[in-house]
Amino acid sequence: MTTMNSGTTTDAVLSSVTSSVKVKTDTQKTVLLQTVKAWILAPKERKITRCLLDGGSQRSFIHRSVVRALGLPVVRQETLNLHVFGSTSPVTEKCNIVRVQLENMWNTEKRLEIEAVETPQVCTALIKVPSEPIQTEIKKRGLQLADFPLEGANDQELQVLIGADFYWQAVTGTVQKVTNSLVAVECIFGWALQGPVATSSVTDTTCMHISLTEDTQISKELHAFWEVESLGIVSQTESPEDSDVLRDFEKTTTFENGRCQVELQWRADKTQLQDNLRVAKRRFESLVKKLKTDATLCERYNNVIQDYLQQGICEDAIEDTTVAEKQETVKYYMPHHAVVREDKATTKLRVVFDASSHEEGCSSLNDCLYSGPNLNPNLLDVLIQFRLHEIAFTADITKAFLQISLSEKDKDAVRFLWLHGPPTKDCKNEVRV
Q1: How far apart are CA 286 and CA 338, in angstroms?
Q2: What is the CA radius of gyration of the chain?
Q3: Quick one: pLDDT band at residue 3, thresholds 50, 70, 90?
């Protein structure tokens, strides 16, 4: 340490201003220094500032931008010899000495007035705010942590350094050991931490892997147990077929008239899809009989179909006009039925279309289409994402799947039957495609 000169020039030693050390071994260690948050008071306003308590620095310092932003009073000027690490000789500068008032963020009666040297840079090191596990441990001990994450505040830049000239006015002298190497120091701003803490740049997730033989009943039961406990997490690889289907699907998807337009992903045996009008008619007749006996169900069902027509979700089928069109067009009629959910607030009745219907010995529409890879988000991923932030948002798209339109060439493969008016007991309307 150097001694203070008796003249107007003062020597000052800066010790731990840039002493945030990281040691990289198998785990990383970050050294926490005594950082605090406090109000810095000005004649017309106040501002949250982050300070470093450093008993190894002979003088206190404040960032020039804070002085100018708040209009803090300059009480005098001094010429200082600044001794910094790595230098062979001191740097002599003429500096402003600024009066600074600091206040506890929870107790306005706890204040500290210091005189600090105005400087363009207090500290270039990024000293981290104590992590959540450490914050939790300090709270368990009933201590108020002096430095903590705060929205709207700069949690990395240090704007004030309280040196040895005012250090012992800031701290009370009470110390508590948090770990063998980490201590909490009481000061008028709360409890400041100092010492090394272990951190990791990579979050490790530990999984248990068990190999089982298939020749025992206990093996099968254990398999079932782990599948349940792991939320169905299994190693899945996308097949080449799925990759090709997804690539073709993305290639043929366009945006037309405010909607995404897609093409059906047909298998090679598309021509085997037979016209199933006879089966669809039989099931439709059964549906009409049911609707005629239930006026409420009939009205709801008809309202849904009419809503589809008004919104352009479905349309009247146009019969082929040429022989060529008749030969190229694949026609398939989807039977449909109602699913009623009275507990729903909005859509109490939903029309469900059956693409697995077929004549005996023939293929259905589903048989002739690729299912492709599962594009739904993994449930476990969704649940984990809800833990990443404090607030989560969800949204619902009205009739989400019905907002997607089909290309013109595939529309005849998703025909269905209805009537020109609501089915009533004396209804003799013709079937509508």
Answers
A1: 13
A2: 37
A3: very low
